[in-house]
């Protein structure tokens, strides 16, 4: 990550704010106001995040985020925590009684960079499994996998094929057509870490 990493306290503050946002959203209440004096000024700098929720069994329960910074980091985390709980189309909205059992993971993204390649083989060669988040774009369609997805899909062929499916395209589109590809890295942290 090129940007300076967040401190332990800044990470803890963001995780606390994410949990408050999820509790408010699940209970259909507005987000509580933020007092800037209580937080590090760095948290008010522009930032892009994904907030991922896991249930008590460690299964995915929601994940929503932004690929590029368009608001202060603190607001990005709050907005995406609430959205991950309530608006991920793959899951029903989180119920208030589920909130205590959720585990929250925040991924802070670096700005995406274009990945230049000529052939499918060169694309595979240039990817860095476990390090790179990948965005595929084909006209107006796009999809991304965070670097953490490499843990479940370590094979680059499978990774790109699943990403094409997520984009709503045939799995082998990346082999048949030159797509726009961008990569980014994340600073990932979650509840329960020291």
TrEMBL record:
Cited PROSITE patterns: AMMECR1
Domain of life according to the entry: Bacteria
AMMECR1 domain residues: 1-194
Pfam families: AMMECR1
InterPro entries: AMMECR1 (IPR023473), AMMECR1_dom_sf (IPR036071), AMMECR1_domain (IPR002733), AMMECR1_N (IPR027485), AmmeMemoSam_A (IPR027623)
NCBIfam families xrefs: AmmeMemoSam_A, TIGR00296 family protein
Protein name according to UniProt: AmmeMemoRadiSam system protein A
């Amino acid at each position: 990550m090129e940007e300076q990493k967040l401190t332990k306290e800044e990470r803890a503050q963001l995780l606390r704010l994410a949990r408050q946002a999820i509790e408010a959203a699940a209970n259909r209440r507005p987000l509580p106001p933020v007092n800037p004096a209580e937080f590090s000024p760095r948290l008010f700098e522009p930032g892009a995040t994904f907030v991922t929720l896991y249930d008590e069994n460690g299964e995915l329960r929601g994940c929503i985020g932004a690929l590029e910074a368009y608001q202060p980091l603190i607001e990005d985390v709050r907005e995406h925590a609430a959205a991950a709980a309530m608006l991920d189309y793959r899951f029903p909205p989180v119920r208030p009684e589920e909130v205590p059992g959720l585990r929250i993971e925040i991924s802070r993204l670096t700005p995406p960079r274009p990945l230049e390649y000529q052939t499918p083989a060169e694309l595979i060669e240039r990817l860095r499994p476990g390090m790179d988040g990948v965005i595929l774009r084909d006209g107006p369609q796009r999809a991304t996998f965070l670097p953490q997805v490499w843990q479940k899909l370590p094979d680059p062929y499978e990774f790109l094929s699943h990403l094409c499916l997520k984009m709503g395209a045939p799995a082998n589109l990346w082999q048949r057509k030159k797509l726009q590809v961008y990569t980014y890295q994340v600073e990932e942290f979650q509840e329960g870490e020291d």
